[in-house]
Amino acid sequence: MEHLIRPNLASNVTVAITPQSAGWNCLSFMIINLKAGQSHNFETGENETALVPLEGEGAFIVSGESFEVGRKSVFSELPHILYVPPGHRVDVEAESGFEFAIGGAPAEGKYPVRLFGPAEIKTEIRGGGAARRHVNHILAHPMPAERLILYEVYVPGGSWSGWPPHCHDGYGGSPYLDEVYYFRIDSEDGLAVHRNYRIDNDFDETFSVCHGDVILITQGFHTTAAAPGSNLYFLNYLAGDLFDEDRNKPPYDDPAHVWIKGNWDGNMMELPVIP
Predict the structure, then answer these.
(1) 30 by DSSP, 3-state: which?
(2) By three-state DSSP, how is residue 87 classified?
(3) Which residue in 12, 129, 138 sits closest to 74, CA to CA?
(4) What is the pLDDT of residues 15-49, one digit of tens each?
(5) What is the distance between the alpha carbons of residues 64 and 9, in angstroms, rounded to a whole number?
(6) Peptide bond between residue 85 and the one before it cis (omega within 30 degrees of 0)
């Protein structure tokens, strides 16, 4: 099964992932790119759903209530996040060119429709050294949802994210979570590299990632590196066996590399190596 998804730029639906197409348990994900005046609609069905503006201006309309949202770019502004429980129709109307993400997972309907604003989003700098990155907790505990967990991550060119590599596939007592990585790169002709691997069997895959690509995390440890000069953004949607308050349970780090959390500049080679 292909775990690198290239965007279909000939369609308004540039990315469409279902549990059936991904071969996993529950997470669905789409990227929609509308021109000014165009619209898109869908039913949440049995899923809770989160919509994330990426660029442009538009309106999310649910049960007669219109939520006006906009974002200059993912590199310049925090988003508004619209959370919609199961059993609703969502209409989207583009006021300008408008690109946004939709993701969902099966839920009972415990939480109401809600627009989360930038002031509610926790931001932090994680890691250090060559693994320093900026993380936005755009729908993560304690923000209420049944299954969905969303992050945005920014990685400077020449740096790594997800280091040490971690997993959430049941290995090492980790929770099981489906996950997508949706990438944007500044500049758009930049490059990133992503690896998924296991240490208990021979599963190992590495991808060259371009602007607009999506990676599916179906199993294993994973990590991402941004090429020099390629500033990296990625949007994570996760959902699986963690519910409500338990969505704050951490993944499991690769024991061969976890030492670096105690010294982010450890084992750093100095140049010249041989004077």
Answers:
(1) strand
(2) coil
(3) 138
(4) 999 999 999 999 999 999 999 999 999 999 999 99
(5) 31
(6) no
